[in-house]
Amino acid sequence: MEEFDTSKLMNLDECVIDALNLLSKTKLPSLDILKKYKRPLVVGSGNAAVTGRIIFEDVDAVFANEGTYEKKIDNVEGIDGAILISASGGKHAPKIAKDLKERGLEVWLFTCNPEALAKEHVDEDKTLVYPKNPEPYTYNDSTYKGMILSRTNEDPKQILNYIKTEVDPLIPPNLADYDAFYLIVSPEFDNIREMLLTKFDELFGSKISGRVYTPEQTKHAKTVVPSDKEMFISFGYNNQLFGNENARLNIPLPENAGYAAMMAIAYYVIGKIQAQNEPFFKKNIVAYCEKASNIFGQKIEPIVK
């Protein structure tokens, strides 16, 4: 891989702002597909799987990933269609799309790549192509946020303004003093917890730990072992109970906030943690992309265009 200028890589908080600007001026695909099937199979890898659970939260759907979809098809009755979610439409997606089609299922593809390899196995009229910005590999902010917005119909302009006026002024300058973060999300956003954990894995690895629970989950022995180096950040919940009282950050959510607002605000805060620490991600993503290219047999770049 050619030498890459890591200064081109933005932090996650910057990515959030760019994504909201893009989605504020872009028409999103309709999701009338939600009404088409009684029990669809919804398949995705990583945060694509989480996005599927969010989009089809109120549907009698069967959720699966690259390792479980075959077992679900074989053992769950009534599956009458399949939705494959993949921002890139590559990696595992082409094989999954091919398998689903060969099993006789009508397959839809949600992607952000007009040239997605998985399109070879999906009818053109069943491919929904969402907008995206060029983003560092793994970020997938504009990609999945656009898909979620097409379901929740939230206003990205209002979310952007809220972040600038209500969230940003609350961010303290000493986030680098902590090597662990405990995020508390309201119960209605339980589905997003895995998405936030994934961001900690991608950006910080073992350098900075992240935990994410709802207030009710937190009551069940999550705070037995305290640490002065762990900050508790709550979203839409006024935390007066958990963590050191000098290491609590309460981030309010806008009225009637949906998953897109929750995702944007939490990603923005995680991006600020990233910005105030050593550039762990930037130092390592080029080498990682080289390894990942060999693993998947596909060219993976540090910036996805």
Which H/E pattern describes the elements?
Answer: HEHEHEHEEEHHEHEHEEHHE
Rg (C-alpha, Å): 19 Å
Task: Quote the beta fraction.
Answer: 5-15%
> Might you state the CATH topology name of the largest domain?
Rossmann fold
Main sheet, how many strands, which sense, barrel? 5 strands, parallel
- Summarize the amount of helix as a percent range: 25-40%
Describe the structure in brief.
This protein folds into two domains: 1-26 and 132-305, 3-Layer(aba) Sandwich (Rossmann fold); 29-129, Glucose-6-phosphate isomerase like protein, domain 1 (Rossmann fold). The longest helix has 18 residues, at 259-276. It is of the alpha/beta class and 305 residues long.
Write the layout of secondary structure elements.
Layout: H1 12-24, E1 41-44, H2 47-55, E2 62-64, H3 69-75, E3 82-85, H4 93-102, E4 107-111, E5 127-129, E6 135-136, H5 141-152, H6 156-167, E7 180-185, H7 193-204, E8 209-213, H8 215-218, E9 230-235, E10 248-251, H9 259-276, H10 280-296, E11 303-304
Parallel strand pairs: 1-2, 1-3, 3-4, 4-5, 7-8, 7-9, 9-10
Antiparallel strand pairs: 6-11
Helix pairs in contact: 1-5, 1-6, 1-9, 2-5, 5-9, 6-9, 7-9
